[in-house]
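[scheduler] slot 2 assigned
[scheduler] job type: sequence-to-structure, two independent chains
[scheduler] chain ordering preserved from manifest
[runner] begin chain α
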Amino acid sequence: MEVKEILKHVDHTLLTQTATWEEIKQICDDAIAYGTASVCIPPSYVKQAAEYAQGKMAVCTVIGFPNGYMTTATKEFETRDAIANGAEEIDMVINIGWLKDKKYDLIEEEIRTLKAACGDKILKVIIETCLLTEEEKVEMCKIVTKAGADYIKTSTGFSTSGATFADIELFAKNIGPEVKMKAAGGISSMDDAKKFVSLGADRLGTSRIIKIVKNEASSGY
């Protein structure tokens, strides 16, 4: 699999608490230069990034991040605000406590609400796989499918671990045909990235792949 093909699947990501505009601008420049699927950045930088990019790349942001326990009304407001500021993709975090309490209807309703707020924009649903049982992961595959979200996503990158190959394989067996998969967190090598894509992941949430490409280019490979 060619590196250019892998880069088309990458949401070039910077979500650290200390992220500055200069750093955000740099990943925007990288995304444009290398042809990534999007940049995934904090909501406070969405308007500035969208104006800076002028349509040369998609801006993605996070909602209810990273813990997911905000009210649905708060998440809906965040979503509408982000889209008004120029976001084309939304990565929301589910209420994990509701999942543990088996409040499946509330989770489905929340996802539907945010998808409605997104309109024709993309909605990805972060379920934080490292905190879930296999039964809970399967249940979330069903809920995400029924709620009409565009993607199911493994991780925030802010919990105990990130994406695993086993989780993507599990998703593939349990999501509906219209739902795509995003692997995020812990993608530390090009081999990892290639394997996730080969298993069916349509998106990869990572900042490391472009760093690897740049390092290889500077080394003459």
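[runner] end chain α
[runner] begin chain β
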Amino acid sequence: MPKLFDLNVVGVIVASIAFFFVGYLWYGVIFTDLWMSEMGITAQDGVDESPIWMAGGFLITILQVIGVGLVLKWKGAGTIGEAVKTALIIWVLFALPFAHYQYLYSAMHSSTILMIDASHLLVGWVVSAVILSVIK
């Protein structure tokens, strides 16, 4: 099986697609109206769904999955439980603090946006960790 940074390429691709789908569910289905309202966007304004932005978002997703995978490998998280625990720890130490930047430095200080963004990363990282722990 081909490897990327000693990670199974198929696992990275599957986990990236799953994580990207979590983003679609978060921002395109579950929290769409709430997110748009908090961002001050109306349905008439729409959201720029240009393929270039979507490709950029997918690239960011791939990089996150590789990062999660490397941490799992370095930690030796061999089971699904260990992978989930590790994903939770790195989410608390990395994703959650990064998500707080927008909250702290934006004019709106929206705790709703913080919760939507941070929970998207939490679910995406956990889903990725589970998939990477299964597809080695």
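[runner] end chain β
[qc] chain β: The chain has one domain: 3-134.
[scheduler] slot 2 released
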